[in-house]
Every structure is written in structure tokens, then in C-alpha cells.
Amino acid sequence: MFPLIAHCVSRLDEHLERTTAKDGIIDTKETMAYFTIDVIALTAFATDVNSNHEDRSKPSPFVFHGLNIFKFDPFKMMVAFSMPRFICDLLNVHHLFPNESFQFFVDLTSKIVEERKVKPAKKNSDLIQMMIDSFTYEEDLENDTYDSLTASMDVDDGMFVLALFICLI
């Protein structure tokens, strides 16, 4: 993954060079947020978004939802941390993330996994690929058929995305 991060750093360096040459003013918080999204997109999803480009007026969906995913609703947080599970289910609070952004990442992860099932020849060195490669069925372990262990993704997509978010946080 180091080459992927180095690629993001070189793009950040190019962005800083362009910005300082143009007007010399850098919005550090915004620039580093976009850099963080670039690193997460490339190392976790093998998606090159280049969010530190010139035109930020129309960000890509990945950048939009990447920035939005950590804007927590205080009501959801209060319910999730203070109420029993059945009340959370009644109030439709299943996670702390904004529903639209969370669903975007669920759909994106599902699509990436499905594409990699169809075209397994191309190996990516991202977090999703590592998780796919390490996944095994429990019955394979119980039956001592260790030589037939293969990677597959027939688990709940939401659980896969949650595992990915846990790794990223």
C-alpha cells in the first residue's frame, strides 16, 4: 500500500505547488481533508478520485459522501448510545452514519466485490482485496478441507462495509 500512499502524496505536492504559485493561499483543512479522502479511496477501494484537482465546485460522488460520512446526527448518536437495541430498531437507527452516504459506500463496496468476482485475474493491493482474499467459510474450517479454502463474498454487504469502516477508523 505504500506506493498507493506515495502516489497520493505526489498529487498533494503537485496541488500545493500549483496553489502556492497561483495565489499563495492554501486552505489547509480542506486540502488535507481531500488528501485523506484520496488516500482512503485508493488504499481501501482502489479508486483514484484525485480530489485535490483545480475545480472543486463539482466534487465526485466519492468525495461528497466521503466528506459527509462523518457528519453525525446528534439524535442518532443519543439514541444509539443510550437506548436498547430494540428501541434503536423501532426508531430505524442502525448506525451513526448519514443513511445516504452509508448506502453509497455499501453500494460501492458491493459493486467492487462483484466486479472482482467476475474478473478475478486483476489483483489489486487495496483493503477490499485483502478482505476478499482472507474470507473463508466456517464449514470449510470445520471440515478440515484447508486445501480447498477460497475467497468468496456471500456475506451480508452491510457487514462487509462495517468491517471496512472499522478498519479505516
Uncertain regions spanning at least 5 consecutive residues: none
Distance between the termini: 17 Å
How would you state the average pLDDT, rounded? 81
Order of helix and strand elements from N to C terminus? HHHHHHHHH
- The percent of residues in helical segments reads 55-70%
Alpha-beta classification: mainly alpha
SS summary, helix count: 9
Strand content: under 5%
Describe the biggest sheet? none
Rough shape? flat
Radius of gyration: 19 Å
Total beta strands: 0
Notes on the protein architecture:
By secondary structure, the protein is mainly alpha-helical. It has a domain at 1-68. The protein has nine helices and no strands. It has helices at residues 2-22, 28-45, 61-68, 74-82, 85-90, 99-118, 127-134, 138-142, 157-168. α2 crosses α3, α3 (61-68) crosses α6 (99-118) and α6 (99-118) crosses α9 (157-168). It is flat and about 60 Å long. The relative contact order is 0.10. The model has no long low-confidence stretch (mean pLDDT 81).
